[in-house]
Amino acid sequence: MFEPIIQIAEEAGRAILEVYEGSEIDVETKSDSSPLTQADLAAHRIIVARLGELFPEIPVLSEESDSISLQQRRAWTKYFLVDPLDGTKEFIQRNGEFTVNIALIDEGKPMVGVVHVPVQGTTFFGTQLDRPTAWMIEDGQRKQIHARPMHPKPEDDAVVVVASRRHGAEALERLLDGLRSHFEVKLTNMGSSLKLCLIAAGEADLYPRLAPTSEWDTAAAQAIVEAAGGQVLDLNFQPLLYNQKDSLLNPYFLVIADSTYDWQKHLLL
Asked: Residue 74 has what DSSP assignment?
């Protein structure tokens, strides 16, 4: 299943780059006040069409799809959950921190995920359909990736925290205060699902998301994180699930690299 989904994400990425590298980006405002560009729509059309051709039996829910009721969605045992362009604000600012996200949800759990980074030409993918496995494609080379353990760590190795550049700063500072009483903390801010991919690739330890997100923002990268050995948990330390309620908003959550470590004792939530 991976190869065609990777190819679809890369094709959508090329369509996004055509707009990104052009002279002007036209921006509309959606009903929820979030921005929409011609790149979002171009990527959406490509992904929905290609998935429909290859997997006609599996429904597709995209951020840019028409509204679909919970009653209709709950009849789906499997479906694709898509964010055609995650990080539209980063796209508009042309900072490169945006992604194409495609996930396969099965019984509420993200089982396959592909996250493509158009500007870098990098792709992350992971699956739990057979045995958990996560990979990264960079410069045409594939390598397996793993979330990193908290121990053993060199004494001078800081806990690396990734966080949103735009959301939840006040709550994040409270959480970091608790961590700093036990560890040296290195904070990196960035946009889109790249934050989860850093956890999966063993480059960060914790991503606290203490501000709103939607299910399509997280599903693909969650599949990759969990395939790499990490976890995505709500603030009650329960796994983040999908298609369980009328709203498509996620609860606040934590992405942790080392699922064996007792994070609860250090986090002020």
From this structure: T
Tell whether pTM > 0.85: yes
**Are the C-beta atoms of residues 84 and 63 closer than 8 Å to each other?**
yes
Rounded CA gap, 234 and 27, in Å?
33
Helices 2-20/38-54 angle, 10° precision = 160
Query: What is the per-residue DSSP string for 200-255?
Result: HTTS-SEEEE-S--BHHHHHHHHHHHHHTT-EEEETTS-B--SS-SSS-BPPPEEE
- Picking from 103, 93, 95, the residue whose alpha carbon sits closest to that of residue 241 is 103
Beta carbons within 10 angstroms of residue 32's beta carbon: 7
CA–CA distance, 46 with 16 (Å, rounded to integer): 11
103 neighbors 68 (Cβ within 8 angstroms): no
CA distance 137 to 85: 19
SS3 179: helix
Q: Which domains does the chain have, with CATH numbers?
A: 2-144 (3.30.540.10), 159-265 (3.40.190.80)
Tell me, what amino acid is at 213?
A: T
The answer to whether the beta carbons of residues 193 and 101 sit under 8 Å apart is yes
Indicate the length of the chain as a whole number. Answer: 269
120-148 residue pLDDT tens: 999 999 999 888 999 999 998 999 999 99
